[in-house]
Amino acid sequence: MTPSRIQESFGVLEKIVQAAGLNPDGAEPIRLAENDLWRLPGQVVVRVARRGQSAAAAREVHVTRWLAKNRVPAVRPLDMEQPLTVDGRTATFWEELPSHRAGDESDLAPLLRRLHELPIPPLALGEIAPFVRIADRINSAQFVSQEDQEWLLRRLAELQAAWTELPPGLQRCVIHGDAWGGNTAVTSSGAFLLDFERTAVGPPEWDLTSTAVAADTFGKLSRPAYAKFCEAYGHDVMDWAGYPTLRDIRELRLTSFALQTANDDSAMLEQARYRIACVRGLAGPRPWGWKAVA
Q1: 255-280 pLDDT, tens per residue?
Q2: Of 96, 117, 135, which residue sits at a domain end?
Q3: Using CA atoms in the order 194, 225, 214, 101, what is the torsion angle rounded to 10 degrees?
Q4: Are residues 140 and 263 in the same domain?
Q5: pLDDT at position 160, please?
Q6: What average pLDDT does the structure give for the chain?
Q7: Alpha helices in the chain (DSSP H)
Q8: Which of 45, 188, 260, 284 could form a disulfide with 94 if both were Cys (CB 3.0 to 4.6 A apart)?
Q9: Which residue range forms the structural domain that includes residue 201?
Q10: φ, ψ of residue 89 in degrees (nearest 5)
Q11: Do 62 and 10 sit in the same domain of this protein?
Q12: d(CA 195, CA 53)
């Protein structure tokens, strides 16, 4: 985090916190990315969303309050009127978790199972949107050749069609939407789910594919660890006929995110180009050993 980035984010935070009747003095940045996370004295975490995400922020609050009623371990929003929007930036306010470590796939599986077993609530969750922002990221990529760009957009169209023709699978339910080990935290009292920005109604296989891709595409999760995840959840999404489609959608999403990141950070160019080569079938079989981009 550069000093200028911290200063810019703090200026936004200061206005929001003051509008909420809180004090920004002593605020500390936790993570400044697509969403900016700040810690306030008094065990309060403020999440400032990027512009245009007020509906997603409101959904996060509604979902976590619903999870609290159903006793699913997850981060909890403060008991206040929220979200709060100031100058086009929307923020939500959360109870800070006690001392914790980042979770992994073994922590995630039981939490996903509990979430997926809940009946769909009368909330305006909407349907999962697996292709959101992919086309914009491809079209905005500054370094991509016209040939690569056209191929990626054709592939996007193919996968959009395949999504509408998925074979029968598990019963539709509320899904997390961005279910990977890093969206769990483990405290002395157990594991908690985090980050409900993309929570929606859809096939539970979408959540399970994230972990499958960690083994299948990234190669960062061992096969024994993946088997342990499947055992804890009670299902192996790789056995489902629709898995290759969901895997390929995930891979295209992750490639488009690398394109977006490379626009702002030239150090990410090599990884972005490598991902394009992989999804185009030019880099050999999986796993491809993709590296994280941020």
Answers
A1: 999 999 999 899 999 999 999 999 99
A2: 96
A3: 30
A4: yes
A5: 98
A6: 95
A7: 3-19, 54-69, 105-117, 134-140, 146-163, 205-216, 223-233, 243-264, 269-279
A8: 45
A9: 105-279
A10: -110, 130
A11: yes
A12: 14
Tokens (6 digits) for 172: 């539709």
pLDDT at 1: 67
CATH number of the domain bearing residue 15: 3.30.200.20
Only one residue has tokens 């796939």, namely 105
Percent of the chain with pLDDT over 90: 91
- Within-domain flag for 287: no
**pLDDT above 70 as % of the chain:** 100
What is the rounded distance in angstroms from the CA atom of residue 152 to the CA atom of residue 242?
Answer: 21
Please list the alpha-helical segments (H only) found in 53-144: 54-69, 105-117, 134-140
Per-residue pLDDT tens for 86-106?
999 999 999 999 999 999 999
User: What total number of domains does the chain contain?
Assistant: 2
Pairing state of beta strands 36-40 and 28-32? Answer: antiparallel
Residue with tokens 């080990």: 181
- Is the Cβ–Cβ distance between 174 and 203 less than 8 Å? no
Q: What is the pTM of this model?
A: 0.92
